[in-house]
Every structure is written in C-alpha cells, then in structure tokens.
Specification:
single chain; alpha/beta; three-stranded parallel β-sheet; 12 helices; elongated
Amino acid sequence: SSYDDLVSTNTGVSKFVSNASNINVTGALTVAKFNTLDAATSAVISATISGTIAELSASNATAAVTNNTVTISDGKTTDTVAEATSLLDRKLTSIVNQLDISDTAANIQNASIELLNSVDSILHTDESSVLNLNVAKALAVFDKGNVGAITNNANPDGSARSNYVLTDSAANIIAADNDVVSFAQSITLTDTN
C-alpha cells in the first residue's frame, strides 16, 4: 500500500494499520513519513527510505534505515565525519562508499580507520591545520580517487592536498608507500628503541 493509503482517515484504516504484523509500503518514504507510520503500528515496515545525508544520519532515522532499502534523495554525497560515522554504524555501506567527507583536520584524524577506508574521498576544510596521522590513516585520506566508489589512486597524492605529519612505528613508516612518507611535513616514531 502507499503511504497515503496507510495514513488515510477512512474508516477502519487506522485499526488495520495498528493491528498489522507486516506492512509493505510502495513508493519511497522520507524519514519523517516512516516515523509517522511507525508510531501508528508495531508492525515490521518494509519500505524504501529516501533522504539527504543529514536526514539519513539523524538520530530519529535509526528505525527507518534499519533493514530497509536506503537512497540519497538529492544526490549530494558531501558530509561530515559525524554523519558518515552514523551511517556506517547503521551498516549503510552502499551509502557510505559514495560519501565525500569534508571536515576539519581534528575530526578527520579522530575518525576511525574503518570509516576512512570506506568513503570515496576525504578533504579537510581547515587547510592551514596540520593533520596528525598514522600510516594507515594517511593512506586512507590521500589514496582516494573521488570517483563515487572506494577505489584508490595509483599513488597517494599526500601534501598536494594537505599538510600532514606521520606518527607511527618505525616498521610502519619503513613499509609505507614512499609518496606518503616523502610528502609528510615531519615524522614522529612511536617506538624509540
């Protein structure tokens, strides 16, 4: 049934909805419409949920995006670390893989490696700030193709996009891609033995 049919004021509809055990909704729902329907029933609601990154990552979207097909309504994939983390926590991998993070150096360097490896591209908005990264995070930040998938560039572009320092073990620095190491403004070894 359509959303309009399910929230109709016609006689018997609200009782039918409230007593249902499963509801399949035709057409895409916004998070707000899903929440309206969810408040009227204890049924399992199956639907396609469509919204902006901000709407899909909001705290009131958890029920809507869980176990449903989710799409980005406006086609915009730029988001913050917090929004992307929320979507990753909700296991919306197909959405997260399309995301272009645009956030401060502090937020990017504090993001999980899982998130940084999952998004399409990463750009820090305060370019005068220096990113302090380990080798794995530097590769995640600088080895992104920005092509709508989590593919990698042939070579990390390093300081062509940002100022950063590496802080990691000697073994990780030695094993790292040469471009990531050579473009770093400085290197701090975490194991001084």
